[in-house]
Amino acid sequence: MISPESVVRSLLRAGRRERPAVTTLQRRERRRTARRAFFTVLTVACLSGLAALAGTGWNLLREDSAFAVRQIQVVGLNRHAPADLLEALYLLRGKNLVSLSPQDVAARLSRFPWLKGFLCRKHLPNTLIVEVEEREALCTLSTPQGCFEIDGTGFAWKAPPGAGGHFALGQGMLPSDPIVQAAVSDLLRIGLAGRVTSLSAARGEPGLLLTADEGWTLVVDPENLAEQWDRFQRTRAWADRFAKDRKTVDLRWSGRVVLREPEDPPEKDPPAPSGEGGPQHG
To answer: Are 134 and 80 contacting, i.e. CB atoms less than 8 angstroms apart?
Structure first.
């Protein structure tokens, strides 16, 4: 017969046999935790040391006179000489090549509207190479200030010496004006270079004055120039036959052409309404 005392003693002996296994697992877990903490601290210390070393090396590179810019080269030009760009970039000489940013170059090249873009390349220890891209010229405009090339998107720059203008601009008109450039682009697109010789602002009213061949002056809306030119061509024979003394024609009216007196003589009386003794229509 098994007594209660023997059962208790057996349980106590079993508990004593299991304790060492639990204690071993705990020791192993403590060692793993200690190793992880050690490697974490070691990794942080190494990264901090590398960062400090990199910062020190970067500062040395930025301050070392061996990396000062001594040579500047400009490549990629086809229509312009590099002298102007080199002159603009001259003040970069002596600056540290490592810390030189594209903004430093852009600040000195922004005054050249014919320059579409650039790319900086650094050749250590002291050479800066600027590769540039020029804008494509749409045509040349003659102005009282000289000839300007335009690209059709709002940029204009001085034309090379000896360049002839496709169109002349009147006083006060800017070659960089987007409206002017859009009108010139349309004139070129519909093949009117040589037939239209100049553009000027219509006095006292919105629109443009175009000087065309055979002494014609056309008052036009800058939009829909092709349609207005076709309207002028359809009525030109009629005007040459019945109104030879009138060479100013207003094409801004949809569906009709209005022949006008020349711009210079002042009006003596207010114009009458259309169809009641006013301008002739063709």
So the answer is: yes
Tokens describing residue 259:
């022949």
Between 45 and 236, whose confidence is greater? 236
Q: Which residue has the higher pLDDT, 235 or 50?
A: 235
Mean pLDDT of the chain, nearest integer: 82
How far is it, in rounded angstroms, from Cα 212 to Cα 27?
Answer: 102
User: Would you mind telling me the total number of residues written for the chain in this entry?
Assistant: 282
- Residue 97 near residue 126, CB atoms below 8 Å: yes
Nearest to 77, CA basis, from 39, 114, 31, 24: 114
pLDDT of residue 164: 80
Phi/psi of residue 90, nearest 5 degrees: -60, -35
Closest CA relative to residue 78, chosen from 19, 33, 132: 132
Tokens at 190, concatenated: 């519909």
The first and second tokens of residue 66, run together, are 């061996």
- Give the predicted TM-score (pTM) of the model: 0.67
